[in-house]
Amino acid sequence: MTTEFKKETLEEFNEIVKRYPDKQAATIPALHLMQRDQGYITDEALEYIAGLLDLPVSTVHSTVTYYTMFYREEMGKYVIQVCSTLSCYILGSKNIVEHIEGRLGIKAGETTPDKKFSLIKVECLGACGTAPVIRINDDYHEDLTIEKVDEILDNLK
Ligand code: FES
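That is the input. Now the predicted structure with FE2/S2 (inorganic) cluster docked in place:
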């Protein structure tokens, strides 16, 4: 796997950087572009971005590891993020995690052997008013029940 942006992605990156007062401020967009291209952020990709932004590798590493939206390893086709923060927890996120673990045969933090699903617990997804909430790739699913979770997973099978 290459660790550099594709040619068209580099052009996109150069356009994005122009919107910021300095290029270091484009760290998160740069990481999004890399993850979009490669699926996750390798050590080599992280070093490449640090070089592009004239930042220490440790700074980019800190950003990648702070945000749960950035992945450090290959993930499944569907990444299921289950909010485990207070509102969702009180309204049953623990049961949802356990139910999904049972259905997929994996634990939170793992990916199914066929690389179809990854399951991770995350902090607040910013939709506390409709807890409990999961996010699958870019889609939010709110006001969840176990039945709704089953319906969602059935539609992804
Ligand atoms: S606590 Fe779950 S979305 Fe905020």
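The chain has two domains: 7-66, 78-156.
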